[in-house]
Design a protein that fits this description.
Elements (H helix, E strand, L loop, with lengths): L1 E7 L17 E2 L2 E2 H11 L5 E6 L4 H8 L9 E5 L4 H10 L6 E7 L7 H12 L4 E7 L6 E3 L2 E4 L7 E3 L3 E4 H13 L10 H7 L5 E4 L10 H11 L12
Parallel strand pairs: 1-4, 1-6, 4-5, 7-12
Antiparallel strand pairs: 2-3, 6-11, 7-10, 7-11, 8-9
Helix pairs in contact: 5-6
Length: 240
């Protein structure tokens, strides 16, 4: 069964405060999207990579990806939409077959280890229709209404979710069709796993990795620059 990776790079990422969309911000000489695509290639489980970009950034993406577009693993560019769910749906529609595993990845998680990518893909290939990498929650979490605390969930049952998230392509397509056809789905799909949960599909977890953090704010970028300046940038990788 083929494994197709969608790398979401169409967002603006305004919280980073950069002059270009976040996925195209350089990190030690290589943009976040370049690093994410390279990690997919190095995972050795991906057969095709689709990079989702806004139409006005296609030329920039082609220049940045450069030789990666001619890599051993086929890489192609598809125009994304205004919202993340729209971009992913555009990517899913560009895949000609249903008999595949699809990985949905945020370009902003540019330091995700290839081994973690492979871990997600293999779990789906083994039969799970939806798989997400997760990390334990270190902070105490409060549920609030305005500035009033409602309660404190037991953090032992909470997990922080990362990407790539892996799915049966056919089932993720079905969930998207139902979601976009529903005029009032009752929620906004902030990630693809929540869409599958809404569709009644069981979502399983695998071990995430600290290196798969999302570059969202200037502090995140400072951390990423510090890590990539080290001689061994994969020092924090969790073993497969």
């Amino acid at each position: 069964m083929r494994v197709v990776a969608l790398v979401a790079a169409a967002g603006q990422g305004t919280r980073l405060g950069a002059s270009v969309p976040k996925a195209f911000v350089p990190l030690r000489g290589r943009s976040l999207v370049e690093r994410s695509v390279t990690a997919m290639i190095h995972s050795a489980v991906v057969d095709e990579i689709i990079v989702l970009v806004s139409p006005d950034m296609e030329d920039v993406a082609r220049r940045m990806l450069g030789e990666l577009l001619c890599a051993e693993v086929p890489v192609r560019i598809v125009h994304g939409g205004g919202e993340r769910a729209d971009s992913v749906w555009a990517g899913l529609q560009s895949i000609p077959d249903d008999d595949a595993v699809v990985l949905i990845h945020d370009a902003a998680r540019a330091l995700t280890p290839p081994g973690m990518i492979a871990r997600v893909a293999r779990a789906v290939l083994a039969g799970s229709p939806a798989v997400i990498p997760v990390m334990p929650v270190a902070d105490t979490i409060k549920r609030v209404d305005g500035d009033t605390v409602l309660d404190t969930p037991d953090r032992s049952a909470l997990r922080a979710v990362q990407t790539p998230q892996g799915f049966s392509l056919a089932q993720l397509r079905e969930a998207n069709v139902a979601y976009f056809a529903d005029t009032d789905p009752g929620f906004t799909a902030t990630d693809d796993a929540s869409l599958m949960e809404w569709a009644g599909v069981e979502v399983r977890t695998v071990q995430g990795d600290p290196m798969a953090f999302k570059v969202t704010t200037p502090i995140d970028m400072m951390l990423a620059r510090t890590i990539t300046d080290e001689a061994e940038p994969t020092i924090f990788e969790v073993p497969s």
